[in-house]
Amino acid sequence: MRWAPAAIFVLMAVGALKIASGLVLPIVVAVMLTMLLQPPLAWLSKRRIAEPVGAAILVFGSAAAFITATYQLADPATKWMEQAPRSLSRVERKLRRVTGKLDALKETAEKVEQVTGAAADDKAPVVQMAQPGFVQRLGSGSIGFAANALSVMFLSYFLLAATPLFRRKLAMVVPGRVDRKGVEEVLLQIEGHMSRYLWLAVVINTFVGLLTWGLLAFLKFPNALLWGAVAGVLNFAPYVGALLTIVAIALVGIATFDTFTPAIWGVLGFGIINLLESNLVTPSLMGRKLPVNAAAVFLGLLFFGWLWGFTGAVLAVPLTVMIQVITARIPATQAVSVFLDN
Predict the structure, then answer these.
(1) Is residue 267 predicted with pLDDT exceeding 90?
(2) What pLDDT sits at residue 120?
(3) Can you give the C-alpha Rg of the chain in angstroms?
(4) Which residue from 49, 181, 217, 303 has the fewest beta carbons nearer than 10 Å?
């Protein structure tokens, strides 16, 4: 029964994180971005550039680079979204020629529709409100994304410009009789560990995106740069990201080319890139810098994906690593660290 209060607190905290995701998620992303930009800020500080100025250069420079990259990819992404229904229809037709199973499924679906339609004729008509179109949903989603992006950008600037101050304040509010200087040193160690991990993850996934771009460009895939960028971003989400990239490459290849050969080579090529990255490059570069086991990574993916959707899945590994690093340095939570440790 002594665990009951802690269990209740954890459940309440998870519920609060789920309900307040619109508020909490930008803060989490800003904290991650702050840790990512700490090493270049330290480099600028050694060049006698004031921390507020260096933080402004890094944060707003990163925002400008992100906007430029998004602008470059916006046109091919929009064209692909417009052509997606026709492309999927071509994929369906080609697969139907090979297997013929889709015809049987279609006939079964038509029979079910006829049966349910006959039963529905005896019921009163149902009034259904018109749903918003794609343009309206895209517009509302873009507004929400822009608001969150601005929140992340300015919060990252304030955190980055005053990181030592926030570290000291956080050490001061820790309850109980503790060594404030020791708490600051632990926080500094956590920041350094997470910064190294995040930089390695960004570098590795960038190379995955570049290699995928080169592979698809060699195979004459349309919008190879777009799919390379998609592969690099999705690779932040372990397991699921690679699977989604394989599905995307297969669909684009089948829809674009007359034969299945380019799609097969694209899938095989990306599979080799992913196998080399996940089994050779990442273990050798991360090494001791990734202190969590594979089961913990998968559970973190499931939990944070359920909690915050796709963004949570992308942040699952760094958040799981952060939890392990923090709990390893707190005596009361070392059992959690042991569970997550590799």
Answers:
(1) yes
(2) 45
(3) 24
(4) 181
The pLDDT-based confidence of 75 (bands split at 50, 70, 90) is confident
Say if CB 296 and CB 324 are below 8 A apart: yes
Taking CA atoms, 213 is separated from 66, 210, 251, in Å, by 18, 5, 16
pLDDT in tens, 161-211: 887 777 777 767 666 555 666 677 777 777 887 888 888 889 999 999 999
Which tens digit of pLDDT belongs to each residue from 225-249? 999 999 999 998 888 889 999 999 9
- The residue type found at 265 is W
Residue type for position 271: G
- The answer, as to whether pTM is greater than 0.90, is no
Place of tokens 């692909």: 80
Number of C-beta neighbours around residue 31 at 10 A: 19
Among 277, 216, 205, 275, CA closest to 250: 216
Q: Do residues 221 and 61 make contact, with C-beta atoms less than 8 angstroms apart?
A: no
Question: Is the CB of residue 160 less than 8 Å from the CB of residue 41?
Answer: yes
C-alpha atoms less than 13 angstroms from C-alpha of 158 in its C-beta half-sphere: 7
CA distance linking residue 71 with residue 97, whole number of Å:
39
Its sign, for the CA torsion 7, 9, 11, 14, is negative
Judge whether 254 and 260 are in contact, CB under 8 Å. yes
Residue 21's nearest CA partner among 304, 328, 317 is 304
Most distant CA pair in the chain, distance = 80
Q: Which of these, 261, 201, 207, lies nearest to 231 by C-alpha position? A: 207
CB 160 within 8 A of CB 191: no
- What's the chain's length in residues? 342
